[in-house]
Model the fold of this input.
Amino acid sequence: MYAMPRLHLALAAACLVAAAGVAGARPGLSAEQFIAARQASLDMSAVTIGGIKSAIKGGQEAKTQAYPATALAKWARVLPTLFPAGTGQGQTRAPTHALARIWTDRAGFDKAAADYAAATGRLVDLAKANDTAGFQAGLAEVSQACIACHRAYKEAPRPE
Ligand code: HEC
Done:
């Protein structure tokens, strides 16, 4: 009879550790928080790329834009994770322009996000190499990647 309480204690401890592990592994965002996070970070991406464009237009060398280009590239890799199922139009209280096609054509959406991430990655390399002419072409490619995804997966703003 000596072994039993110890066994029970060990089992109880194992359960506690497992429960803590489960709770700790997934703090979780609500659907509304996912939508708010992606909209805010997409707004900041627009600000970032706008800043890069005006710096280059103003005659700055590519290497001065390595930091904002890196920030854009980091975010580009995060972007698809902020579109989990259940965060589309009519599925939450938050307004969103994300079209249902993101989830019915997930492979296409992930490809658009990967193309965008690749374009921002090239931009970082061009900045580090201080290839200003290449960087300008790279910027146009990044903008094209934004537009391509929006055409397919984002509701166009209604004309006023
Ligand atoms: C892989 C697809 C994809 C790429 C790439 C992408 N976007 Fe978007 N973007 C979306 C979707 C979908 C929405 C709608 C999000 C929502 O309303 O929940 C959006 C929304 C936005 C918004 C509005 C955010 C708001 O406050 O509602 C801006 C601004 C924006 N994108 C800018 C950009 C810029 C700039 C780039 C490139 C540097 C870019 N996006 C790249 C899919 C993309």
Summary: The two ends are 80 Å apart (CA to CA). The mean pLDDT is 90. Residues 35, 38-39, 42-43, 45-46, 49, 79, 96-98, 109, 112-113, 116, 142, 145-146, 149-150, 153-154 surround heme C (CB under 6 Å). The CA atoms of residues 74 and 86 lie 24 Å apart.
